[in-house]
Design brief:
By secondary structure, the chain is of the alpha+beta class. Helices cover 27% and strands 12% of the residues. The relative contact order is 0.19.
Length: 168
């Protein structure tokens, strides 16, 4: 029996805690730094369907795929969402690769997530990151031109990300 309890103790926090039970640091560590949630999304008001673009939030650093001012982002960007467990369960525009969404759906983190792989680079290696795929910042494009920047990939699961590469 001691083996069973030590095995369960060895499980990572995201497999043993609900989103609500996680500490602030645990919650923040779920973000894989892909930057997909920081792309401009459009919603069809008639159908409720979401479309993602390759246009980035004005605060997204496209080199690091991190917010340039994370602490003050909500006061600087009026529609920036502070993700909560409830929102992770309900926001239809969260990418399917998003750790918050995966856990909210009862799934596990992917092999490329830094908490699993131990390396931040695997997000880019798996093709999940927006690095090198952003057309421009929202400040650099006319509002009426954003529709022309709709792309499928931000709301899709990349083929490379589905299967862990074998290491020979």
């Amino acid at each position: 029996m001691a083996e069973d309890s030590s095995a369960s103790m060895a499980k990572p926090f995201w497999q043993t805690k609900t989103l609500e039970e996680m500490s602030g640091d645990e919650w923040e560590s779920l973000c894989d730094g892909c930057g997909r949630c920081c792309l401009v999304k459009l919603e069809d008001e008639d159908t409720g369907q979401y479309y993602a673009t390759d246009v980035a939030c004005r605060l997204l650093d496209t080199s690091s795929c991190r917010c340039r001012d994370y602490t003050n982002r909500q006061s600087l960007v009026s529609d920036c969402v502070r993700l909560t467990p409830a929102e992770a369960r309900s926001l239809g525009w969260l990418p399917p690769t998003c750790a918050y969404r995966l856990l909210a759906e009862g799934k596990d983190l992917a092999w490329w997530h830094p908490l699993v792989s131990g390396r931040a680079e695997t997000v880019m290696e798996a093709g999940v990151s927006v690095k090198g795929r952003v057309h421009c910042s929202e400040d650099d494009i006319a509002v009426e031109d954003v529709v022309g920047r709709i792309r499928q990939w931000p709301l899709a699961w990349p083929k490379k990300a589905k299967k862990k590469p074998s290491r020979d």
